[in-house]
Amino acid sequence: MFRFTCRTTEGMVIVMAKIILAPQKGPQEMFLATSADVCVYGGAAGGGKTFGLLLEPLRHKNNKDFNAVIFRRDYTQVTAPGGLWDSSRKIYRYVKGSYPLKTPKLHWTFPSSASVNFAHLGSDDDCEGWQGSQITMIGFDELTHFSEYQFFYMLSRNRTDSGVVPYIRATCNPDADSWVAEFIKWWIDQETGYPIPERSGKIRWMVRLNEVISWFDTRQEAVEAAVATGMKREEAETMPKSVTFIASTLQDNKILMKNDPSYLANLQALALVERERLLKGNWKIKAAAGLMFKRTKVNMLENLPTDVILWARGWDLAATSEDENGKPAYTAGVLIGKRKNGRYIVADVINKRLDSAEVRELIKMTCMADRAKYGKVTTRLPQDPGQAGKAQAQSFLKFLAGFTVKILQESGDKVTRAEPFSAQWLGLEGMDKGNVDVLIAPWNEEYFNQMENFPQSDFKDMVDASSSAFTEIESGGTYSPPPAESSLGKNSYWK
Q1: What is the mean pLDDT of each run of 10 residues along the chain (495 residues)?
Q2: Taking Cα atoms as reference points, which of 45, 10, 4, 6 lies closest to residue 28?
Q3: What is the largest CA-CA distance in the chain?
Q4: Looking at CB atoms within 10 Å, which of 194, 248, 416, 452 has the fewest?
Q5: 261: which DSSP letter?
Q6: Is the pTM of this model over 0.85?
Q7: SS (H, E, C) 437-473
Q8: How far apart are CA 153 and CA 151, in angstroms?
């Protein structure tokens, strides 16, 4: 009989003909070895967290009464290529007698009748569907995507008569604004945001009463504190839960680093905030004024470069002259070009207070001016959700017949949309300058002020318009065809 070893990119080691599923040494091994009731396995991207979560239930695959449910926030995150279900197939198919089923929920069964189920919790209301459930192991993949209510409600469903002490396992990337950041703060250096190495894997005890969590160094301290509130000792003995946090980095996943060295380069190319979170595992970093756009990171050009190969102008629209707080609302249009050398040029910025009728005229006049000065320019407009947004989009397309126009619903919040442009603006870590040029013009100071103050500034119009233009350039998408009723020919339309 022969043996050979197969290594996956996520951290699993498989030895065949006798198949052994094993974690990598380090945090992944610690995650599978901890005795804590609740373990959060978090940190940088690429640390092998999801594979560790999927390996965990296999220790109980021969227990007929064992069941596990692993959650994602959205169902598509479970079923999408590379998602939970896809990843589970890379592991569980090597377990003799395992069988995947898609009804009533996606799940795997093992010869003993043990099972691992996959589900989603899209909202707090979805928790009601699990009322009365008894789940031995509950897993949360990307815990920061779930609400605190969802976590603690499902903790109440964490019970069993299988002989296995019920437990929770969770993975996540850092998110300074999530409830998880507060939950694990003892394990995190509150000055730097980085995990404290000597605390990784250390167990503490929590008691949660009236939605307030108290922490203790020992189980006995936790019990005595519960008794001190007037609780009967018998009940107090059931209150403490042991909790730990295990930090991971990309460097811990040596198999991935070897098999896909470009993954590190991809993380290094992220914007500062995302790079700190996903590459360095920083739990305190968040978008703040001066972090995403620094004027000192761009090159200023006196003249428009002649090597621009793509142009796009993104718009952020204001339908009224004032917002709901009585503050001025602006319509912004930012023109960005991509050069042959791979750099980007911010060539023109418009930022005006206008009513809805004036906005339409401004956009049309700008389309005419852009075409006359720069040639083919794609105009990108945001589409409001719902039927009203669709009607407005059709109206704009008709109004702007003859120009290259794209109207799309924007996804994510303004910070998320700004991150790709921010990455180019700041450049790679250690670079003096980023990958963006700005044409010297009267609008520079107003533009830089808003960009540098983002996202704390009251106004974010120019930032969002910049993000839209950059996204359009990088998307390489198709352009809207000329309306059927237009008298313009195809050649005229694409000019």
Answers
A1: 36 51 84 95 82 93 96 93 91 92 91 96 94 95 96 94 94 92 96 94 95 95 94 94 92 71 76 81 80 92 95 86 64 96 96 85 95 95 82 88 91 88 88 94 95 87 96 69 41 33
A2: 10
A3: 85
A4: 416
A5: T
A6: no
A7: EEECCCCHHHHHHHHHHCCCCCCCHHHHHHHHHHHHH
A8: 6
